[in-house]
Amino acid sequence: MNPCKALLPTVVAALLAPAISQAAPPAQDATPLTTGSVRLDIASGRVEGDVCVSNLPNASKGSFVLNAGLNVARVTDGDGKPVGFDGWYDPGVDGEARIYTLAEPAAMLCVQYVGAFPLYPKHDAPTDFKGLMAFNGDSARFTEQSAWLPQAFDPKARVRSSESRYDLQVDCSGCRFLYLNASPAIEGAQGRFRSDNARPILLFGGSGPITRTAQVTILNESLPPAKVEALSSTVQKIADVHSRYMGVPLVDRPTFLRMVTLNQIERDREGSEWGFATWPTIAMSGSVGNVADSLLADGDNAERRVQYIAHEMGHYYFGTLNRPQGPYFWVLLESSAEFLSIKALREISGDAAADRYIARLQSAIDTQEKPLPAFDAIDGSSDLGEMYRYVYAPLLLLSLEKQVGEAKMQAFMRGLLAAPSPRSWAELQTIALKAGIDTKAWEHWRASCVAGGKAKQ
Fold first, then answer.
1. What percent of the chain has pLDDT over 70?
2. Residues paired with residue 156 on neighbouring β-strands, in sequence order
3. Does residue 373 sit within a domain?
4. Domain boundary residue among 206, 240, 263?
5. For residue 158, how many other CB atoms are within 10 A of its CB?
6. Do residues 127 and 234 share a domain?
7. What global pTM score does this model have?
8. Out of 29, 130, 262, 420, which residue is the most buried by the measure of CB atoms under 10 Å away?
9. Which domain CATH number covers 78?
10. What is the dihedral of CA 281, 283, 289, 290, to 10 degrees?
11. Are 328 and 428 in contact (CB under 8 A)?
12. Residues 341-356 pLDDT 10s
């Protein structure tokens, strides 16, 4: 029997092995800090910012990016001294953002800027996506992808510092509430927000209701008690599973955000939905109630919702407490969260639900004719697309668990959480050995499941 293909359990085993050791959150490298103030007006689409970014990565002290719809008034250093910059003429572009290059590197970067954006009160825009600074007539939505705040930029690696600690004052004319990712929503048109953990900084200002429970916050939509309870109880169950498995309490609880998209009229006509997750925010077009409806129903829809929410909640561990870096970035960030989601799905929805989900992943891999990048040979240049991140690598983790047992796999996952991101296969193996996985078992897994990146196991 091929140990890599036979991923479905043949016996029902306890999901949660006895605690090996209490995992401690990893020490984090210093991260950028964003401070200052932002003002916006829902009625006009106008945005003004006076924002400083400090503790910049060395490679990013000479460049920053800002949304292409925002105009820079001036740039100064931490002492208020003007800093020359290029970017007006023939500018470089990184997605939604314009690239600005400083005349000299600055340890602290302060940018004053202003801009205005179209309003779509009829929700009849030609498109909408995460990179837009979106005004729909009664709300404003700026995600980290939109670069609504200045972000340090590494011109060689072409990487933005999209996560930051923050201490920001936000004023929004026309807003009934304000929300900054990972901070409690504030009722009113102005508020100060702080986070000591680096976060992808999302801003939402709206006029809808707020529902808070101990487990969830629901923004911009009112749900009946039964639906609120469905969301709350599911989140609590997932938090319990993740906390026990990882040995660290899951402090973050999700904020479900209802957003009326700029092109909502088209989405409603087509019956399509759109959503994204900027943990701990889970944003959904149309209605958060649709998620609760699925959870209240039996069958495949409920199972998929549980798995999806569990995946996003897994990013508290891999993405927040531990911020992956290096060649295994996507595996540590997304594949680890996917692995945790399957563990939660098995515990909450049952073995049959988890087995069906794993079978779908395996079926997707079985259709791949070309080998994927071998896990023991990937480096910073390896193309680890969605198939690798969400399907192949999670199956590899499950195959490792099958070979070494649940207790040692749990210790391995805790080791990944507590350790700095491994930069090589040897460093990854060191974490495995510390988790009690012996060299013989590790090499057997490598030879039978990893080597060659065989898509068909």
1. 93
2. none
3. yes
4. 206
5. 11
6. no
7. 0.88
8. 262
9. 2.60.40
10. -120
11. yes
12. 999 999 999 999 999 9
